[in-house]
Amino acid sequence: MFKKILIANRGEIALRVIRTCREMGIQTVAVYSTADADSLHVRFADEAVCIGKPQSSDSYLNIPRIMAAAEITNADAIHPGYGFLAENAEFADICARYNIKFIGPTSEMMRLMGDKITAKDTMIKAGVPVIPGSEGLLDNVDEAKLLAAEMGYPVLLKATAGGGGKGMRLVWKADEMEKAFESAKTEAGAAFGNDGIYMEKFVEEPRHIEIQVAGDQYGNVCHLSERDCSIQRRHQKLVEESPSPFMTPELRAAMGEAAIKAASAINYESVGTIEFLVDKHRNFYFMEMNTRIQVEHCVTEEVINYDLIKEQIKIAAGIKISGKNYEPTMHAIECRINAEDPYNDFRPSPGKITVLHTPGGHGVRVDSHIYAGYTIPPYYDSMIGKLIAVAQTREEAIDTMERALSEYVIEGVKTTIPFHMQLMRDERFRSGDFNTKFIEGFTLE
Fold first, then answer.
1. Is the pTM of this model over 0.70?
2. Secondary structure element (H or E) that encloses residue 14, with its range
3. In terms of residue numbers, what domain contains 24?
4. In total, how many domains does the chain have?
């Protein structure tokens, strides 16, 4: 087992990793930018090293400085968390070169699943259902028009190196294609340095359902059930839950089997997530694989009583997994608490927290790095915490969440708590009648 782990991240995920390491008797090293000097992950780690200025490029994305911090503290492993360098194959290669264990998959696995065209080809060979679309990148707009006419509109143009909705355009009819194609390529090139575009058939009224998987260094792979992430805004998840209210035992078995095929196809090592789109007829299609721990991992932990960070560390240390597939025994819902103004188009709201009261009680979990007096910096993602409610049924979990949200007091900045309060009371949401377009018709009162 590792003696000392450096956490190449910040905020709540850094604190989350530190907590599990402490339970496992592993020393921790926090790295931080000058903007995060007063963050809790810096305070609770055994050691802390400042690695640069507030901008991510000068700190959390600066590989030489992170490696220098690992060297001077004698860390024998690095946990990347999520975001930043978590899916950076070059970073994983550098860690291997310097004999520091990257807690995650190998760089080869990341490259196979990081490029969406390569990932799709890999899944087709593995027998995993994929969304109909182009066999590779589109060379020009004429090729795009021809393929769209064959498949039938609507179609979706997507950046091969994309994420977060960048380089993505929905095209409903032929005369929209040229403008959509050019703008998608331009945006993809600016965002990712890669303007490659491919096409997929647009799945109408889709659910976004993902399967958590774990694989070890010995070829064992298991799935740990599903999470429903359909409540989204501009392709950014807002609420996640497990089990999905749309799920059936037959669908769970089929999706679980497909997820294991997907992970096994690349001999996946670590925890990861296979993401699917599921249409209204419960046909499911592979969308992408996240080769890291996810923000919403807490939901799975609560419904199967399973520490995913601990499992991730154990796998990296060469310990075998049980190979057992899991089904949820409880119901959990997670609300992402962002420092954003939901009454002003969710505009970011950085600043100093003057008053903070976190909820508690049976069935309530709060993962957060904020405290009264903490200043939320404007340089990073606006998520400042995750509120998780768990109960025996979905109805009870929603009731617990609504109660917990009513206790959550954050003053000094705007937050998404009012949005979540209204959502928990919405009859369509409570009935489970929603898809990825739900928020487009949701008006905040």
1. yes
2. helix 11-24
3. 4-103
4. 3
Q: How far is CA 213 from the centre of its chain?
A: 13
Q: Which residues are catalytic?
A: 292
Mean confidence (pLDDT) of the chain: 96
Q: What is the pLDDT of residues 212-246, one digit of tens each?
A: 999 999 999 999 999 999 999 988 999 999 999 99
Asked if the structure places residue 272 within a domain, the reply is yes
Can you tell me the distance from the alpha carbon of 134 to that of 165, in angstroms, rounded to the nearest whole number?
19
Q: Is the per-residue pLDDT at 163 higher than 80?
A: no
Enter the tokens of residue 193: 């340095």
What tokens does 201 get?
Answer: 């058939």
Residues 185 and 226 in one domain: no
User: What angle do the packed helices 116-126 and 107-114 form, to 10 degrees?
Assistant: 90
The Cα–Cα gap between 345 and 159 comes to: 25
Residue in the block written with tokens 């196979």: 112
DSSP 123-149: HHHHT--B--B-SS---SHHHHHHHHH
Q: How far is CA 133 from CA 171, 188, 262, in A?
A: 14, 19, 19
Give the pLDDT band (50/70/90) at residue 161: confident
